[in-house]
Recover the amino acids of this structure.
């Protein structure tokens, strides 16, 4: 079950933001899109999930072109975790249940409720399932958003800066839980993340964007002092710590 983005391009008002971006995702793996602010990471995510319409490129899942399928059909295949999507006034359970919308007709059935219970349990949110989302921590809410995406039973999950504004402990917890669920459910997953070291520790594959194009893609070996200088404009050294690259500003 491979998901591929092929030759994705996008522009705003004549300004080219993405140019001929192509990559593939493998089930059970987490790919991270890297690059500085304004390079087109969020635009790419919105193109993949269909929030932004566009004519440049296509999306292929298991050999089938899904570029122009209906929003409801796409929501059954691809789920999206935005940087912040707050459902004020709802409980954690109700917020997660919203992920079942692509499958609902008139009423919520037992299958929907059982799936929500299962996802909440697997992520460890049982103790707060009846709490209002307004009253939980940022780290807990990120897990709620991930739970809502997973309850869609997707083949592909997209996450836009899932650790944004979290402290170090919550960043690690959110990504550890995410990696475990991706592996257990064998879904394709891609996220954007501005933290280079965090991305290197938790990603199976890295895709670096520069000027709206792919500068490099591969494993941890793509993180070098030269690639960081070219993409981010930073002078760094790259050390290896417990098998992972870690950038150190010069």
């Amino acid at each position: 079950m491979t998901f591929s983005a092929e030759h994705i391009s996008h522009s705003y008002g004549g300004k080219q933001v993405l140019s001929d971006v192509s990559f593939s995702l493998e089930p059970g793996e987490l790919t991270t899109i890297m690059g500085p602010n304004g390079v087109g990471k969020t635009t790419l995510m919105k193109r993949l999930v269909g929030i932004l319409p566009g004519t440049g490129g296509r999306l292929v899942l298991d050999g089938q072109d899904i570029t122009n399928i209906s929003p409801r059909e796409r929501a059954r295949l691809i789920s999206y975790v935005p940087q912040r999507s707050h459902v004020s006034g709802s409980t954690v359970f109700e917020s997660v249940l919203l992920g079942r919308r692509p499958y609902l007709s008139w009423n919520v059935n037992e299958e929907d409720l059982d799936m929500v219970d299962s996802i909440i349990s697997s992520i460890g949110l049982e103790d707060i399932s009846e709490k209002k989302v307004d009253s939980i921590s940022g780290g807990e809410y990120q897990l709620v958003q991930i739970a809502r995406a997973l309850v869609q039973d997707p083949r592909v999950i997209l996450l836009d800066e899932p650790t944004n504004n979290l402290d170090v402990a919550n960043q690690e917890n959110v990504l550890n839980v995410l990696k475990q669920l991706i592996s257990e459910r064998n879904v394709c997953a891609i996220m954007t993340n501005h933290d280079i070291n965090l991305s290197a520790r938790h990603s199976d594959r890295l895709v670096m964007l520069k000027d709206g194009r792919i500068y490099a893609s591969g494993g941890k070996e793509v993180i070098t002092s030269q690639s960081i200088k070219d993409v981010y404009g930073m002078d760094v050294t790259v050390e290896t710590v417990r098998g992972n690259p870690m950038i150190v500003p010069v």
